[in-house]
Specification:
Layout lengths: L30 H4 L15 H9 L2 H51 L3 H15 L7 H11 L9
Helix pairs in contact: 4-5
Length: 156
């Protein structure tokens, strides 16, 4: 919904054609007249906009403010609902990342990893993805944390 501005400008609306006064008595049509296209009124393109224009023009400044506040309130509700959905998606992504990191940490413990090679791959990938302007230090720290998991306590 768009906000409405108070205005006194009233736009002209094209009037519909006037109806004909009286019909002529029926006369037998000749073939030439039967093929002629019937006359119809031009479609009204502005007819749907005319009530809104007059409605806005008739509203006082206070009424416009109330209407605009109602519109803003509705928009804020919609934004709030959208943000709730986005937060849920981010939480879901975080759960997936944690699960992936922990699974990878178990694989690293079992198979081992060449951390220098991993760091070089991280540097290359970030450099290529950011036109050599990105800083790979955070990704390297994460890789080090995954490659050096906290030792497990022995089970009893």
């Amino acid at each position: 919904m768009a906000l409405k501005k108070p205005t006194k400008k009233v736009t002209a609306v094209k009037a519909a054609p006037k109806p004909k006064a009286a019909k002529k008595p029926a006369v037998k049509k000749t073939p030439a007249k039967a093929k002629a296209a019937p006359k119809t009124a031009a479609p009204k393109l502005t007819a749907k906009k005319a009530p809104n224009v007059t409605k806005v023009a008739q509203l006082s400044g206070e009424q416009l403010v109330v209407e605009n506040l109602a519109t803003l309130s509705s928009l804020v509700r919609t934004i709030s609902e959208t943000l709730d959905v986005l937060v849920q998606k981010v939480e879901n992504m975080a759960y997936h990342l944690i699960a992936t990191e922990e699974t990878l940490a178990e694989v690293v413990v079992t198979t081992g990893v060449d951390l220098a090679q991993v760091n070089n791959r991280i540097r290359t990938k970030i450099a290529n993805g950011t036109n050599k302007s990105g800083d790979p230090s955070r990704a390297i720290d994460v890789a080090a944390a995954i490659a050096s998991p906290v030792p497990k306590k022995p089970r009893r």
